[in-house]
Amino acid sequence: MKVKISNKRIVIILLIILFVVGVKIYNYQPKFEIDYSKYLLSYGVASTLFSPDNKHSISVEVCKEDKNSDVSYIRGDLYVVKEDSLDFYKTIYLEKVPSDKLDNGLTGDSYYEKCDVEWIDNQHIQINGRVVDIYEGYDYRK
């Protein structure tokens, strides 16, 4: 028994294959990228904390457009620890908060703002009361 395949079917099958490959390539791209380049955040206080297994490090920075701004941004940058160095991986956290909701004050002449940061396990971190998966992240704009 011979099976005849028409040119139309071959074209349809090829288009389906191309579509599936295109979807796979699109989904392979990083799903969670935070672009904060449009913010002019010049004032900030940073703290760094290593994961329990010492494979990752999180640098959490509280940023403002200026010292007197009523709005603060909490940004968390994830690093991968490699042979006594930290390699930037990606920004996994961005949150906009009222400045009065953060721990702030004066140390001498220096003003500071900070938020609570704690590793829950090797994959989850709690930043400002929100638990974040380091592979998914959190962005208040989404």
Would you mind describing this structure in some detail?
The protein has one helix spanning about 5-30; strands spanning about 45-50, 55-65, 70-80, 85-100, 105, 110-115, 115-120, 125, 130-135, 140. It has a domain at about 45-140. The chain is built from 1 helix and 10 strands, in the order αββββββββββ. The protein is elongated, with a radius of gyration of 23 Å.
- Strand line-up in the sheet with most strands: 1-2-3-4-10
Number of helices: 1
Question: How many E-type strands?
Answer: 10
Shape: elongated
> How much of the residues is beta strand, in percent?
over 45%
Largest pleated sheet: 5 strands, mixed
**Poorly predicted sequence stretches spanning 5 or more consecutive residues:** none
Q: Return Rg in Å.
A: 23 Å
Mean pLDDT: 79
Distance N to C terminus: 56 Å
Helix content: 10-25%
Structural class: alpha+beta
H-E string: HEEEEEEEEEE
Protein name: DUF5412 domain-containing protein
Organism: Thomasclavelia spiroformis
Key words describing this protein structure:
142 residues, 1 helix, alpha+beta, 46% strand, three-stranded antiparallel β-sheet
